[in-house]
Amino acid sequence: MENRFNEKNEKEYMQDGYTIVKGMFDAGEMEAVLDTALEDEVIRRHTYGRKDKEGHTTKLALWYALGRDVYSNIARSERYLEGVEKLLGGAPAHFHTKLMQKEPKVGGAWEWHQDYGYWYHDGFLYPQMLSVMLALTQADKKNGCLQVLRGSHLLGRIDHGMTGDQKGADMEKVTEALKRLELVHVELQPGDVLFFHCNLLHRSDKNNSEKARWSLISTYNLISNKPYKQQDPSCYTPIEERYQGRVRKDDTARISEKDAHFLH
Ligand SMILES: O=C(O)CCC(=O)C(=O)O
Ligand SMILES: [Fe+2]
C-alpha cells in the first residue's frame, strides 16, 4: 500500500515549511507516469527553456487546467488533496502544474526564491498557496535536487529581482537567512512527494551528472484567495472529482493541447 499524508506531515510543514511523504506512488505508477512523459508529444511541443545566471538552460512545460490525463489524475488525487486541504486550511484550487526536465550535464540551476515571490505579482493577495513536487526520477545532490532553507517560510515574503531568465530573492536577506537556518538537500526517490509552503526559500544546482532529474510540480491556491489580476479560472475553481484510483498509463486520456491552457 502506498503511504499517505498524516498528522506528522502536517506538524512538520508548520514548523519547517515543508514535509515529505515517501513512496506515495508505487513503482508501477511511477513507470506509467515517466513512460507517458518521455513520449508525450504535446508536452514536448510546449516545453521551453529557462536560463540561470551562468547561462545554463533548464526545461519545463507549464499548464493551468486539469483534465483526465495521467498528470491531472495525480494533481487531483485524493492522496495529494487530503494533504493540500489540511495545509491550506480549506478547499484548494489548482493553480498550475509543471513538468520539470533537468537534463544530464546541461540542466541549469534555479536561484534562491520563494514561489510567492512570483505569485504575489500575479495578484494573489494572501500567501495561502503551496507546491507539491513528485519525483519522477531519483533526485540527489549529483543531479541537482531541490535545496530548502528549513523554517524560512516564517520570514514572510522577500523582494525578488531578475537573475538570468529567472527571478531570485534579495541576496542580502538570503545571506543572513543562510547563517541562521539549516540548508537541506531534498533527496527523493521516484514516487516520493514533497509538500512545501509558498514562502519557503529554495533553489537547486545545475545537473552535472549523467542522470536526468525530472519532476512534476503541482501548485495550489485556497479557493477564497481569488487573484485580483486576471488568471486562468482554474486557480479559484473547486477541484471536481478527486481521483481515487491508481495512476495508470493504459486507461487515461492524453493531455489536451487545447484544454490544458499551456504557458507559451
Ligand atoms: O525543480 C527545481 O529545481 C526548482 C523549481 C522551482 O523551484 C520552481 O519552478 O519554482
Ligand atoms: Fe520554486
From TrEMBL:
It comes from the Bacteria. GO terms for molecular function: dioxygenase activity. This is Phytanoyl-CoA dioxygenase family protein. Keywords: Dioxygenase, Iron, Metal-binding, Oxidoreductase. Residues 94-224 form the Fe2OG dioxygenase domain. Belongs to the iron/ascorbate-dependent oxidoreductase family. PANTHER family: PHYTANOYL-COA DIOXYGENASE DOMAIN CONTAINING 1 (PTHR20883), PHYTANOYL-COA HYDROXYLASE (PTHR20883:SF51).
